[in-house]
Amino acid sequence: MKIAPFHIMDLFDDVDDKLYTFEQLYLDILDEHAPLKHSHIRGKQVPYMTEEWRKAIRHRNKLWKIFTRERTDENYEKYKCQRNTCTSLRRKAIREYFRSKSSEPENPREFWSAYRPFLNSKAKQANDIILKENNIVISDKKEIAHLFNNHFVQFTDCTAQVSEAEYGQDYANHPSILAIHKHNSQGYFKFQLTNHGLVEKLLLDINVRKSCGHDMISPRLLKESAAVIARPIANIINSSISQCRYPASWKMGQVTPLFKKDDELSKANYRPVTVLPAINNIYERILVLQLNEFYGSILSDFISSYRKFHSCETSLLRMTEEWRSMRDDGQLVGIVSMDLSKAFDVIQHPLLLAKLKAYGLDEDSCALLRDYLSNRQQRVKIGDTFSSWETVKRGVPQGSVLGPILFNIFINDLFYHIKRAKLSAYADDHQIYYSERDPVALEECLCKEVEKANQWYNDNGMIVNKTKHQALILGDTEYTFSFPVKDSIDIFGMNIDNKLQFDKHISSVCKKINNQLNVMIRFRKLISKATLVKLYKAFILPHFHYCSSVWHFCSARNTEKLEALNKRTLRFILNDVESTYSTLLDKVNCVSLYNRRIQNMLILLYKSLFLTTYPIYMRNMFTLRTTSYNLRGNYILTLPVPKTTSYGLRSFSYHAVKQWNSLPDNVRTLNLNDFKKSLASLNLM
Known about the structure:
Structural class: alpha+beta
Low-confidence stretches: none
Largest sheet: 5 strands, mixed
Number of strands: 14
């Protein structure tokens, strides 16, 4: 690789010619020294099949054919004996397979790949997809790939087109562009050339487990050859930035359909995830690093998706804490949750580019991104079968590195239109909420703000189903609202009820855990105790801890219900019906669920105080105590003064601060890792 003549790329000016030369040289070397090995894989074969069992099955089938020709008792007895032998060998094969996977393999991925299909309900493989089209069941992979590709590409044809002619050149009179100019001082951004040092660093950080794109260049091989290829790749990237042209080969993506929910036979219940060439992802990371520096201060603080340290839990905490504060003041709280359809796929490129320009991107940077978005092609991959290539007219690719930040920039100006109520956005899930003592005023504000949001979706070519808006009212009122109000709504996989007691959510958590526990019970004779503990920590504990800081203040009955379920699970895993709950927890090196939730709350508080890139809305929940007296203690926080026990006293901002202030002074000043270790040794109640 070191002696490869990559310098001949300099003979070409066009970036596509440079990339073609690099790929041919690189692939020629790989073909000579690391050629692809083609092998035929038997389809629909269980992973625990053994040669002895396979031969027994063949012999059983042979005896069955003999019996069908001569139906004698003797022939049937021979067949039945062989059938029983096959059953015995099958059980033996299953037992040996899971025992071998349970031992410490050289590659831990083998362990998880063996058990994940049984414990993860979303483990739907793309090569196992069967569709139903016009009441006809389709199993042919080529036809399924073709149907998916047409669906993903043509779905946006039925959505309204936002015409530039209607709003003037560069959408100058579009409501979003006007709002951006009004709320932002004219900044300036221009993509800068990169260097081979940064490219080499990104190549070394590449995830070797990622799939390769259509160019068939493996991420693992790119990482291994990073020192040699960093300079020619930097040359290609710099040529692309200078010429404002994106390499055409890097705009070709392989799409994998991922199942979402509901009917598995309907193509509408799958979303496209694009796999792009691995080298393209390096280029996109360089562009994103530069864009983040510019847009970090422009994006709303309340956009929580695709941003470092932002999560579903932080977004939910911000909302539920504000709702509790509003209820603590005796106000009614109205919440409307909205969900966009195909949010990534319907974004119109000219309008996105107009927004980027309005925020401050210069002409060359806009030209580069225009070329990045235009003439993109995709094909769908089902197993080892591909559809034909189709041109993508709208949207940003899901699975790309640039896609998420472009999406966040596109929806950012929605926050300029929602002024009275509060808005929270996590990807395509948006919530508008407002509080008032007067239910009439509450209804009036919510209706106006939701109408503004719907108008924004319409003006920006987004698809929103108004009939699927969900409304929730926190607080008691006899007033009849003009819109349907539910007792609970689902946000980010959590059920939020109108009392913030989370009864339905806890029931849902218990149901999921019981389902997985039943699967583990079926494995009990096949795997060891140590393996069961691994599965418990990997597949059951996450259900107990998902967004636990949000629902921690559930009823005492629900708290006991969760602890009882955890104790029952541990008794099964450890085969111990006599030890106390605390002893069971010690055996698996865990603490009680309640204690773990307190630890999680304190860790979130620590990050809010000391991590500068943590969400601002989390930092704003806490205030350092200031006093003229010389008191002991570092980083002591001001304890909020609650008005009610139902909301103010049972809130994250009160309980977390109380626990924080009670920590030993030396613990609060530790680094994050030592802080976590110290919490594990403390008795938090």
